[in-house]
Every structure is written in C-alpha cells, then in structure tokens.
Amino acid sequence: MDVDEALEILDKVLKQKRLNYIQQFVFCQSWSGQTYWEIAEQSGYDSDYIKEVGSQLWQSLSEALGEKVTKKNVQSVLEHYQYTKVERGRGGKGETPLTKEETAGNSNLPSLEFPSGPVPLNSIFYIERPPIEESAYAEIGKPGSLLRIKAPRQMGKTSLMHRILAHAKQAGLHTVLLNLHRADSTVFCDLDKFLRWLCANVSRQLKLEPRLDEYWDEDIGSKVSCTVYFQEYLLSAIDSPVVLALDEVNQTFEHPEISGDFLPLLRSWYEDASELSIWQKLRLVVVHTTEVYVPLDINQSPFNVGLPIKLPEFTSEQVQNLAMRHGLDWAKGGAGAQNLAPLLAMVGGHPYLVRLALYHLANPSQLPQGKKEESLEQLLQDAPTLSGIYRNHLQRHLANLQQNSELAAALHQVVTAPGNVRLEASIAYKLESMGLIKLQGNQATPSCELYRLYFREQLG
C-alpha cells in the first residue's frame, strides 16, 4: 500500500472529518518514516504543534477504526483494514459478507484491483509497452549488464522491475531487490553505514551469512571494502548470476555525501565486468524517479551507461485495451475510442490516472446513477477539484510544491501561459521528473489538462 491509497482509506473512514493541509502533510511524512522533528523542520511549524496534530490524527483514526492507531502502527492497521475489506468483498472465511446493497449489480467487483503500488505479476491489468519488456528481458540476460529505469512516480517503474526479476528467476538467476525507501533514515548518515547496510541485505537475500567484519577494513575505505565483499565473498559464493535491483535510488540524491560516492561505485562495478569474469555474474537494475543533482564526472556516472528505459505514457489503443479489461463494453470499437477521448484529453496516457478513472467507472458502487458514459463526464468535471477522484494525487504534488517556492512559481508560469514556456534547466528537469510538465527541447507545457486546471487554481 502506498500513501495515496492510504489517503483514500482515510477519506472513507473519517467521512466528514476530511484532513486539512497540515494534517495531510503530517500523515504523508509519517508514512514515509519521518520523525515529528523532521516534519517540523520541513513544514516550518513548531515541533510541539506537529506532535499535537499527529496525536489528534491518530486519535481520530482510532475512533473511526475501533482500534488503537499510533504513528508506529498506522501502516499495519490500514493494510489490515484494506485486506479485511477485500476479503469481505470475496465473502472470505471469518469475515462478514457484503450486504445486498453493496453487491447489487456488482458481479465484476471481486476481479477489480484498486490501482495502488505495483501491478501484481498475475494481474490482467498490466499493460505491456512494446518493445520495453522484451528489450529489458534481453538486456538482463547479458553478463555484467546494467539497466536504468527512469520515470515519474506511478508510471509503472516498479511493476516493470518485478517482471524483470520474475523473468530472471525463470531463467535460473538469483534475484535481490532493495527498496531504498525502506531503509532507516540513520542508514544515510554516512557512506560506511550505507554500504554495510547494502552488503548485509544482499547477503541475507542470497541466503548467505553476513560476514562484513571479515572483509571490512577502514584503512582501505568503505568503497573498496564493499567491492572486495562482493567480489571475494558474495559473487564467489553463488553458483549462478545475480540480478540486483535497486528501487527508489533517488533516495540517495537527497544525501550528496552518499550518492557522490555510491553512484560512481555502481559504475565501476559495471566497468569491471569488461575485464573480470567474476563481475559478469552481477546484473544491475537501477530504478529512480528524478535526475541526480550532485556533481558527477561524466566518466563516473552510472546514468550514461547500460540500457536506459524511460517509460512512456499509454497510447490511446492501450487505454482502450485497459478499459475493456475492466469490463467497460462501451469502450469497444471506434465508438468506444470516441467515448474514451475526453479521458485522454484530461489525463493523457498517465497509467495511474487512467487506471484510477477506469476502476471507478467499472465499479458500480463508485458511480452516480445513470449511464456510464454520463458518469465519465461527471468524473472528468470533478477531476481537477477537491471532490474529484484525483484529489489525493494532486494534493501530494501540491504539498511538494509548497515546500519549494521556486518550483511552484515555475509551474504556475507554465499552467497560466497561453503557449510553451522556457524554464531554467534544473527547474525544468525537476518538474519533468515529478511528471508535471513535458519538455520539447527547452520549452515546457503541462503534462496534462488535469494539472493545468488544478494548479492554475491552487497556485494562483
């Protein structure tokens, strides 16, 4: 479960007590593992006030859910709530079945998936984007390969990564997945701690006993110690190549003292494979959302070697395919393409935004009375408002922009301009990496009409 889905649940369980901006900010930052002090630092509010906001929020959730909710257990409580609700929908054992009103006209509901997090491997709702998958599978089979997947959040990076790992397993390779977003904040205190964390996790996932102290030598430094540990222990101990997938590598970008050394280290391992056969057993998959803004020599950066994959939006044909997989018969054929045109005009081919709309349209309990085509019209009318289905997605972007006045001012310029806007390079890259703008050369336009309408209003 990611924070957007958690906010959707909060909207439902709190009902009339919809979160204000600071409550939502505290919730989102708590969800990502930040302390109250860190949240206070980012928000500009006093830490005691932030603690009080958090305390009241957990109390409201405790009352709504009927069990104790705290900052530490909120993720597990909401995940259990979601699981219980899904099982109720399926009439699972030990749970109360849905009422007649809930299931009326809803025979397809159990097969629907709320679009949150990676698309499951066996899901019918995963849409391939040829030739990306085929190219990725071929690349990961090459000795010493490096695959770079870059896209804004919710574009399908992690879903693709899981399929690459599944393909590697079928081919008999070992696989290791490290999501840097799950690392404790203390892991990023210094390079030595970070690299030891990396080695310990890789060891355990390969079912090898961590033996860091035997190979770590402060006299030769952390990077050499880490390299020796991989070369002389990990890679030597396994009988087949290993695919090491590093998800959310952008977490290191916030710590230049880490990324400035770690990223060139990845590059050096990739280059070692051309000379040392032992390093050909390591295949790297690097997944990130944003550009790196630390000064790296072009010959040290891992972002100009290997196979780059930048995930595109869905085409109109892929959106129509996905709509039919949701059981929307009115999306078939030429007439169906015309019916879906307003959705594409509003959100483009953004995978998450498209899937969220189709989920609501395919779920009768989410629709107002009337024809589904009319429901799409109403859904799109509400889309850029605080009552629309995209409110949590939009508010998350707004919260990020409100922490950076320079980005907010630049996006306001883009969404209010009658034509393209030329932006300073680093600002343009950041907004593009967030998925909020598209670049044609140096000229920026809003990524979709939804962002134009919402941010024109909110940033005004």
CATH class label of the largest domain: Alpha Beta
Q: At the fourth CATH level, what is the homologous superfamily of the largest domain?
A: P-loop containing nucleotide triphosphate hydrolases
Q: What series of H and E elements makes up the topology?
A: HHHHHHHEHEHHHEHEEHHHHHHEHEEH
Helix segment tally: 20
Overall pLDDT level = 87
Summarize the structure.
The chain is α/β, with parallel strands linked by helices and 460 residues long. It is built from 20 helices and 8 strands. The strands form 2 sheets. It has a 5-stranded parallel β-sheet with strand order 2-3-4-1-5, with helices on both faces.
Question: How does this structure look, described?
Answer:
With 460 residues, the protein is an alpha/beta fold. The protein has three domains: 1-97, no CATH class; 132-310, P-loop containing nucleotide triphosphate hydrolases (Rossmann fold, 3-Layer(aba) Sandwich), CATH 3.40.50.300; 392-458, Arc Repressor Mutant, subunit A, CATH 1.10.10. 52% of the residues lie in helices and 8% in strands. The protein has helices spanning 3-14, 21-31, 36-43, 47-65, 74-90, 100-103, 132-140, 157-170, 191-205, 212-215, 222-237, 256-272, 316-325, 333-347, 351-362, 372-382, 391-402, 405-416, 425-433, 449-458, and strands at 146-150, 174-179, 242-247, 282-288, 307-310, 421-422, 437-440, 443-446. The protein has a five-stranded parallel sheet with strand order 2-3-4-1-5, with helices on both faces. Helix 2 crosses helix 4 and helix 18 packs across helix 19. The relative contact order is 0.09. The model is unreliable at 90-110 and 368-373 (pLDDT under 50).
